[in-house]
Amino acid sequence: MASRGLKELRVRLHLVLIVSEYRRIASLTDKEQEELDMVLEKEEELNETRMRVNELQRRLQDAEEQNRQLEATVSSLQCDVEAFRDSVRTKEELIMRMAEQNSELEKEGGERRMSLHGEVEVPEGIPVEDASCVVVEEEARKIYEEQAVRDVHEMRDLVEGYRIQNEALNNEIVELHNMLTAYEEKERKLTRAHFETQACYYQLKSRYIMVLNHFKSPEKPGKIMEPGILRELIDEANRTPRSARKDKNGKATDKLGFYVEGGAANGGDGSKLDAMFETAADCQKRADELLEASQLEQSEEYMKWLQSWDAFLVNSVNTKNTVASSPELKSLVRTGIPLAHRARVWVRLVSLHVRDRQAEMGNGYYDCMLKKAKRKKDEGVFDAAIKQIDLDLARTLPTNKYFEDPSSEKVELLRRVLYAYRYHNADLGYCQGLNRLAAIGLLYLSEEDAFWFLTACVEILQPPGYYTSTLIGAVADQKVLRDLVQEKLPRLANHLKQLEVDLSLFTLSWFLTCFVDILPHSVYLNIFDVFLYEGNKVLFRFALALLKLGESRVLQCKTIGTVHACLSRASDFVPNFKKLAQVAFNELNPFPQKSIEQKRQAYLTELKYYSV
Question: How far apart are CA 512 and CA 510, in angstroms?
């Protein structure tokens, strides 16, 4: 009876708990219910990702086991082939000795007949453990029969038989090699899928932790996020690839559309083997990068960096959704902007520079410029700037799927932005390099925001005359940079002067495109972060930092050609943006803006005097 009563009591208590939990859930507001559903959904995604990782690991182990079995089979077949070759070589030696003896017998006129058995040592048959081969005794019997052959035609038939047999063996080896290559390719694909799924898992885990931190209990209140950040984190997590992103041609790309390094094999067997090793090295490099990224995202330093940005955006954004200049913002921007916040921060930094012009031009100004461009085109007016824009579109970012050819997804948006700017700034029109600046803006911003991004870069952040037909502003800055190199890096400056190397041949494009042409996008996008806040001055800092990182290599160059080759691969000097920024902002001080401006004005005056 007592046990029955306890059982009934447990059931009643369980029902009471269920009813109380149901009432608590029912009392939640719609917003809280949506947030709860979202957290549960993200937890379900994490569980699915873990299951995918386990499945890929199992498939990878199966592929490795198959690969080991194939390698063992190939090794066994290679031993069999070597045995056959030894047999063929022995028989060829027999044939040659028999031919020599036959020639001697013909010269002597048959005076003496030598028994071939008495003078020629007959080798034993070489056994080969293969289902397609005859037994050892049968092979030995054939060898004894063949050694008695005296007729030249019969010898030729034997040699032809051996040749056909060798060709068959070679074909079998080629087929096995193709099978091995196919299995290795399958293994590489599985490995790549495993690494990218693992990276997806760590990214989701990082975002999940941030969301959970937002919903901490009242005893341990979490940091209050700015409205909209939570939704952006969710959207970003949903955009995270579950497998390698592919373009229409099957090439792997990252989240911004840039093609991932690594190529497929082509050419002959040698080039295929080289490509296989190159792919293996790329996979190893990719694995190391993913491991480093996952460790970084879980590090305390990385979490503090994200929290600093979150806190700044929450506390500093005013009712007009803009930011103001401050030492805190300057310090944060120099560390780089998180990917989740870059679009929002870029819009606000651009607005910081052009909001007065936007207010002056009024709403709909961008659409007016587009209509003007369309009207001119419909009237058939020839415009050299428009013609040059059309020619440069497909050459903008050839390593990005959104801009690689005229039919790419964002090329038409780029055309509209450049057309609008051509009529917005009629005096300038268009200059090569503007297409890259506009394309960088389109990676994160809407079409109209990219137009104002380009306007800020050309008309505010860069000095006047930078993108004119004479490039007078950019040329003056190259002379300023030459002086700064002499001041900050005297050994390098003297070495280049001794070899008669004109540094501006390389650095001019650095300044015009903000390093897009020389550095990987993972680095120059962070440079744009700082450039959008501090302007042209940081280009000198990063140019000097880049030269300082490569100074030791350039000093080892003894000819103009080697210096040119070294500076053409300047990206090799930069391991990552963190190292570049460390040198630019900590090892090159003092760096007064007033001194740069004075030098610039002096050189501008000189250039204008000689251009008259």
Answer: 6
Rg over CA atoms, the chain? 36
Residue 269: predicted pLDDT: 45
Q: Which helix (H) or strand (E) holds 179?
A: helix 152-214
Query: By C-alpha distance, which of 196, 207, 197 is closest to 237?
Result: 207
CA distances from residue 345 to 109, 335, 514, 542 in whole angstroms, order as listed: 104, 14, 18, 21
Mean pLDDT for 516-531 is 93
Three-state DSSP state, 499 = coil
C-alpha closest to that of 444 among 515, 338, 373, 571: 338
Predicted model pTM: 0.59
Position 118 scores a pLDDT of: 44
3-state secondary structure 294-317: HHHHCCHHHHHHHHHHHHHHHHHC
Q: How far apart are CA 150 and CA 101, in angstroms?
A: 10
Residue 528, exposed/middle/buried by CB under 10 A (0-12, 13-18, 19+)?
buried
* CB-CB contact of 478 with 511 (8 Å): yes
Burial classification of residue 572, based on how many CB atoms lie within 10 Å of its CB (0-12 exposed, 13-18 middle, 19 or more buried): exposed
Q: Which of 588, 501, 586, 604 is nearest to 540 (CA)?
A: 588
Q: Supply the pLDDT for residue 547.
A: 95
**For helices 447-456 and 411-424, angle between their N-to-C axes, nearest 10 degrees:** 50
Tokens of 198: 């693992």
Given a contact cutoff of 8 angstroms between Cβ atoms, the answer to whether 574 and 519 are in contact is: yes
Structure confidence by residue, pLDDT tens digits, 195-234 = 667 666 666 666 666 666 655 544 445 445 455 555 555 5
Mean pLDDT calculated for residue range 463-489: 93
Distance in angstroms (rounded) separating the CA atoms of residues 553 and 334 = 27
**Dmax over Cα atoms in the chain, in whole Å?**
124
Region 106-112: mean pLDDT is 57
Least trusted range by pLDDT, from 173-187, 216-230, 569-583: 216-230
Residue 112 has pLDDT above 50, yes or no: no
Q: Identify the H or E element spanning 252.
A: strand 252-253
CA 484 to centroid of chain Cα atoms:
33
Alpha-carbon gap, residue 151 to 534, rounded angstroms: 93
Q: Where are the alpha helices (DSSP H) in 470-576?
A: 472-488, 490-498, 504-513, 521-534, 537-549, 551-556, 560-568
Nearest to 302 by CA among 312, 293, 289, 311: 293
8 A C-beta contact, residue 225 and residue 314: yes
For 408-428, how does the pLDDT look when each residue is reduced to its tens digit (9 = 90+)? Answer: 889 999 999 999 999 999 999
Residue 535 tokens read as: 């302007």
Which stretch of DSSP H or E encloses residue 53?
A: helix 30-108
Query: How far, in Å, CA of 150 to CA of 269, rounded?
Result: 42
